[in-house]
Amino acid sequence: MDIGKRLQTIRKQHGLSQRELAARAGLTNGTVSLIEQNKTSPSVASLKSLLDAIPLSIAEFFATLEESDEPKFFYGADEFIEVAPQSGLASVSLRQLGDASTHSLQLLDERYPPNADTGPELMSHAGEEAGIVVSGQIEITVGDQTRILSVGEGYLFDSRQPHRFRNVGTEVCHIISACTPPTF
Question: pTM of the prediction?
Answer without folding.
Answer: 0.68
